[in-house]
Amino acid sequence: MKIRDIRLGMLSVPLKTPFKTAMRTVKEIEDVVVMVETDTGNIGYGSAPATAVITGDTHGSIIEAISKLMSPALLGRNIGDLNSLINIVQNSIVRNFSAKAAMEIAIYDLYGQLYDAPLYQLLGGGDNVITTDITISVDSIDKMVEDTLSAIDQGFETLKIKVGKDPDVDIERIKAIYTAVNGRALIRLDANQGWTPKQTVSIMRILENSGVQLELLEQPVRGDDTEGMKYVTERINTPVMADESSFGPKEAIDLIRMRAADIINIKLMKAGGISNAIKMADIAGLYGVNCMIGCMLESSIGVAAAAHLAVAKSSVITKVDLDAPALGKYDPVTSGVIFNNSEIRITDLPGLGISKVDNLTMLDI
Ligand code: MG
Question: What is the largest distance, in Å, between two alpha-carbon atoms of the chain?
Fold first, then answer.
């Protein structure tokens, strides 16, 4: 199975409600989709969103990195030579993690098709059903409580609450949601870098002392402030998870060895694809540290790949935050991964099992 052509398209999906964090507001999912065509007629799909304030990747940079640097080096190569293809992708350009992730996802999709097995089987196998949380965007207290109750009605048992705005209002938000949930769901907080280390410790002490029980606190301080993460982790009882502080395997090693976080959030778009995400899970496993698998606001192509990885590495990836497909008004992607609110189920289809992507606008590159 040889790579014959690499094409690009754009895919957008409107959201049910705007996605609001301490960093940004987004109204629709918009991904660059990469299609790797082979001489056997098989097509591998990958995708990446622009997340300028998180990874620095834009649609333009993703398109350029793939079309100008990766594609010329990959054309004519054999899909069976997986490791050498991964090396080409990873060495084609520094950083540009989301472009690398999109290309790797398409290559791994084809690798699964080559051996006629779903990707998670080739990554080691596992139980093909996982359960995701859902994000509650940061908003007025009333709106957040309303969204929380609606998520519980839809069967979600874990909620990821976005905070990180004004500390005093955040405390009121969390208390109101905790009371409304009344033990019916587990609550994770994601402050998206919105607090300082000292603010975080003071907020969490108030919450912990008032009896609010939280599963974890995600990325309270700036991503580049590893010392700040360590400061918080040492001082609060609630487990701290690194998201924007944790990009690839090297950051995972540093965070774990410094004890700057209790949990590592792995996202394909930050790690630069599946190969580095595997390394991160294995590193965390070595140290007995658990991971979350997360995603950006992105199409279900990339999220499907993340689900395969989560199943294969479930002994380490014990927390799943793959709710992007549940936030879209519809899902234009038909794949081997079935997203049904909190339940994510992987079928036996080879690779990622993608048979159809509706509403794709092809790029003339
Ligand atoms: Mg996060």
Answer: 63
Annotated catalytic residue, options 160, 165, 230, 267: 267
Q: Is 267 a catalytic residue?
A: yes
Picking from 244, 220, 230, 214, the residue whose alpha carbon sits closest to that of residue 165 is: 220
d(CA 123, CA 278) in angstroms, rounded, equals: 9
- The pTM assigned to this predicted structure is 0.97
DSSP 22: S
**Residue range 72-121, pLDDT digits in tens:** 999 999 999 999 999 999 999 999 999 999 999 999 999 999 999 999 99
Cα–Cα distance for residue pair 232/239, rounded to 1 Å: 10
Identify whether 162 is a catalytic site residue.
yes
Identify the DSSP state of 238.
S
Instruction: Report the distance separating Cα 95 and Cα 272, nearest Å.
Output: 8
**CA 192 – ligand 1 centroid, Å:** 6
- Token couple for 65: 């990195």
Helix, strand, coil % over all residues of the chain, rounded to 5: 40, 25, 35
267 C-alpha to ligand 1 centroid (Å): 10
Give distance in angstroms: CA of 117 to centre of ligand 1. Answer: 32
Distances (CA, A) of 47 to 59, 252, 296, 299, 308: 11, 24, 11, 7, 15
